[in-house]
Structures are given as structure tokens and as C-alpha cells.
Amino acid sequence: MVKIAHNPCTLSGKDGSKFILMQLPEDTYMHKGQRRRLLDELRGLGIKDERVLDAMDRVPRHFFLDSAFAQFAYSNKAFPIAAGQTISQPHTVAKQSELLGARPGQNILEIGTGSGYQCAVLCALGYKVHSIERQKALFDAAGPLLRAMGWKPSLYYGDGYKGKPVFAPFDGIIITCGAPEIPQALLGQLAVGGRMVIPVGDGEAQRMWTIDRVGDREFTKKDHGVAAFVPMLAARARD
Ligand code: SAH
Questions:
Q1: CA atoms of 52 and 21, how far apart (whole Å)
Q2: Which of 10, 38, 49, 120 has the fewest CB atoms within 10 Å, i.e. the most exposed one?
Q3: CATH number of the domain that 39 lies in?
């Protein structure tokens, strides 16, 4: 059994149980105020789905950032996280969540857990979330943090290109890294009536696409403009 207490390390209890000791930062009135201002900024940038904005209001972004950047957590910017990766820009998280257009209780697959921030927002939207990360250090950090915050996604250390066939079909698939092309295995794991949100393109600049599965072998796609993500890379990173 895993219990959460307060301090950043792991201890074993007398009965062999593991205690993950996780000290969450405080979520002060200052943070809450900054968060509200960020949400207004996102409304100004065209985000309309109040469910998404409400979910983002309930997830303190500064919990997911290195303390050096925590003071900038509520600016609309991407920041470096471990393993040379980035936490997505708040506008990107809002836009991808809005485009996903899922309903509470639906089965959602995220590729690229990263810091866990987008994953927490999907949990706050009421989705049943599965998330895959290829960097072990990020996978190891995201689980204890999300559990300490009370979210219960299923997290996997693996290659997102393969998806999670055992839990398919997914009502939504959200890819938070730039894919050189649309991964065919993931299309096959999308439910009929489901939607994939994916930045596609080589290098630093991609375009955001939604792909709807409208029939067993029928898909429709829509372009949602320019996007900039770290690349989707093949296979798990070596430990
Ligand atoms: N959703 C994250 C964004 C992290 S950046 C957040 O909110 O912080 C994108 C992440 O995708 C990186 O952590 C990177 O390691 C991961 N990634 C890249 N290729 C992948 C793959 N094939 N499978 C799983 N994760 C991958």
C-alpha cells in the first residue's frame, strides 16, 4: 500500500508498506489571483470552453515547475522541465483540451506525460486518463505528484507510438509532442466517434490537427493552425 505523508522522500513502514513523502507547495491567495488573471488572458486569446478554464483554475501550475520558474507559473509561457523537455504553454493546454471536446467519464489517452500538468487538467475535467511518457525521470516524478494532489490517472513508462491497446478504444487521444506524421497505431485505438488532437510536422514548428474517426475506416481531419512542441521521439529513452 502507498500512503502519502509530508516530506520529499520514500520510507518503508514496519509492515513493509511504502510511504511516498511528498511536500506540496502552498497554493496561496496570490497564486489563485495570478491564476484567475491567466484565465482571463486565455479567454482574451479565444478560449471559450468554461469547463476547461474551470479545470485549469483547479490545478495549481506552480506545483509542476522547478522552483526557479515557479514565480512565472501563471505567465502564458512554456518552461523547461527535466530531461530537456518542456511543460506546455497554458494557452496550448487550454486549446488542446478544448479541441479534444470529450465528456466526463470518457476514456482518454495522453502521449507525453511530461510534468503531469496537462494530465492533471484532463483529470480535473473528469476524464478517465491514461498517459504515456518515454523519459523515466519524468514518469517517476509525475506519479507521486499527481497522487499527492488527489488525481488518479494511469501512468505508463513506454513508447507513445504504440499507444495502449489493452485499454483501447479511446474516446480521445491527445498528443503533447510534435509528431513527424500521424501514428497509425494510435488511429487504430481511437473509438468510432472519438477524436485525436495532434501537432504534426517536422522540427520545431507543427500544425495542430484534429482527426475524427467517423466510421470504422473513415476519418476526417481539420487544421487548427501553427503549433510548437518538443518532438515525439521513437521508443523509450534509455535509463
Ligand atoms: N503534457 C506535458 C508536455 C510535456 S512535453 C506537460 O503538460 O508537461 C512532451 C513530452 O512528450 C516530453 O516529456 C517527451 O519526453 C514526451 N514524448 C516524446 N515522444 C514520446 C513518445 N514516443 N512516447 C511518450 N512520450 C513521448
A1: 30
A2: 10
A3: 3.40.50.150
